[in-house]
Design a protein that fits this description.
Number of helices: 7
Mean pLDDT: 88
CATH architecture: 3-Layer(aba) Sandwich
Strand content: 5-15%
Radius of gyration: 16 Å
Shape: globular
Distance between the termini: 47 Å
Largest sheet: 5 strands, parallel
Number of domains: 1
CATH superfamily: P-loop containing nucleotide triphosphate hydrolases
CATH topology: Rossmann fold
Order of helices and strands: HEHEHHEEHHEH
Strand order of the largest sheet: 2-3-1-4-5
CATH class: Alpha Beta
C-alpha cells in the first residue's frame, strides 16, 4: 500500500516536552543540536545503529514516533511530490524542536529547515549501499528500482550546498567528524 497526501492523518501541536525528554533518556543531549541531511541509502541508519555512544538519532525513528512520518511500510515517499512535501514539512518542525533540545539528528526528510551538513556519497557507492540494504536488511527507504527518485532528491539536497553554502561531505562519518570535532 502506498499512502497519498489525502490519506496522511492530520497533525496538531501541543506541549510535547515529554516526547523530547524520552529521547534525551535514550540519547546524549548536547549544548547544541545538529541536523545532517542525506538521501535514502547514504548510511544514516547503519551509522546510528552502530555508534559506540548514543549521540545520533535516526530521523526516521524520531519522525515516526512524533507522527510526522507515516509508518515506513506504507511507502509514503512513493505517494507523489505533494505527499513528500507535506511529510517533509512536518518533519522539519520536529527536527527544529529536537535541535533546540540539544539532540543530534540525521535523516532524509527536509523542506525548509537549513541542515548543518549534507552528505552525498559517490554515486557508485550509493547504489551499492542501496542494493546491499535491499538484499540483506531492508528497513525502509529507496530501493534499486527508485534510483531516479534518489537522483532527484540529491538534486534537491544539493540546493542547500549551492544556494546556502551548507557544508557537503561524501560520507556520514566525515560530516559527523566535521560537526563534533571541527578543526
Amino acid at each position: 500500500m502506498v499512502i497519498t497526501m489525502m490519506q496522511l492523518p492530520p497533525v496538531i501541536f501541543k506541549d510535547s516536552q515529554d516526547f523530547y525528554d524520552d529521547f534525551a533518556k535514550k540519547y546524549i543531549k548536547h549544548d547544541k543540536g545538529f541536523f545532517i541531511l542525506a538521501p535514502s541509502g547514504a548510511g544514516k541508519t547503519w551509522f546510528c545503529n552502530n555508534q559506540k555512544e548514543p549521540h545520533w538519532i535516526d530521523g526516521d525513528q524520531l519522525w515516526e514516533q512524533a507522527g510526522a512520518h507515516p509508518d515506513f511500510r506504507l511507502q509514503w515517499w512513493t505517494g507523489g511530490e505533494d505527499t513528500i512535501h507535506r511529510v517533509d514539512q512536518r518533519s522539519d518542525v520536529i527536527t527544529m524542536e529536537a535541535k533546540l533540545q540539544g539532540l543530534w539528528i540525521m535523516g532524509a526528510s527536509n523542506f525548509w529547515l537549513r541542515p548543518d551538513a549534507i552528505v552525498i556519497p559517490d554515486w557508485d557507492t550509493h547504489i551499492a549501499q542501496i542494493k546491499e540494504r535491499e538484499d540483506n536488511h531492508y528497513d525502509g527507504g529507496a530501493t534499486s528500482d527508485a534510483l531516479e527518485q534518489v537522483r532527484a532528491h540529491i538534486a534537491d539536497i544539493m540546493k542547500w550546498h549551492t544556494a546556502y553554502d551548507v557544508p557537503l561531505f561524501k560520507s556520514i562519518e566525515e560530516a559527523v567528524n566535521s560537526l563534533v570535532d571541527p578543526a
